[in-house]
Design a protein that fits this description.
Elements lengths: L4 H42 L7 H25 L11 H4 L4 H7 L5 H41 L1
Length: about 150
C-alpha cells in the first residue's frame, strides 16, 4: 500500500511533537537533578571547615568534584541552542525579513526541524546521562566517606 501525503503529514507532525516532548523531558529532569546536586554540594561545603578524618576529606573532595562536573553538564542540558545554522527554527527565522520568511514557508521544513531537534535532544540526553552517572558516583563516594568514619 502506497504512503499517502496525509499520512506523511501526520507522521511528520507526530515525529516533531515527539522530539519536542523529549527535549522538554530532558530539561525537566536536568532541573530536578540541578536542585538535588546543589543541595548535596551545599551540604558538603557546610562540612568543609569541620575537623574530619583524612579519608572522609578525600572522598568528600572527590564527591564535590564529581557533583561540580555533573552540574556543568546539567547546565549545558538546559542551555538554549541559538545557532540558527539549521535553517528550520526560530533563531534562523530571526535573521530573515518577512518576505524571506514567507518564501521559506512555501517548503516543508518539518524534516529539517525533526533532524535538528533530534540532534539537540540526543546531545541533551547524553549530557543528562553523564550527569546522572557522576551524581551516582558522588553518592558512592559519600557512602565511602561515611563508611570510613566507622572504620
Amino acid at each position: 500500500m502506497a504512503t499517502t501525503i496525509p499520512t506523511v503529514d501526520k507522521n511528520l507532525d507526530a515525529a516533531r511533537a515527539a522530539v519536542v516532548a523529549e527535549i522538554a523531558r530532558t530539561d525537566s529532569k536536568a532541573s530536578l537533578l540541578l536542585a538535588f546536586d546543589g543541595v548535596l554540594i551545599a551540604g558538603l561545603i557546610g562540612l568543609a571547615d569541620k575537623s574530619l578524618p583524612t579519608p572522609v576529606k578525600i572522598f568528600g573532595t572527590l564527591a564535590v568534584l564529581a557533583l561540580g562536573i555533573a552540574v556543568v553538564l546539567l547546565l549545558l542540558v538546559v542551555r538554549p541552542c541559538l545557532s540558527g545554522a539549521d535553517r528550520a527554527s526560530f533563531p534562523f527565522w530571526a535573521t530573515l525579513d518577512e518576505d524571506q520568511i514567507r518564501a521559506r514557508m512555501q517548503t516543508d521544513t518539518r524534516p529539517a526541524s525533526i533532524r535538528v531537534l533530534s540532534v539537540i535532544a540526543l546531545a541533551k540526553f547524553t549530557r543528562l546521562r553523564r550527569a546522572i552517572d557522576l551524581s551516582l558516583t558522588a553518592l558512592a563516594l559519600l557512602a565511602l566517606a561515611a563508611a570510613s568514619t566507622l572504620a
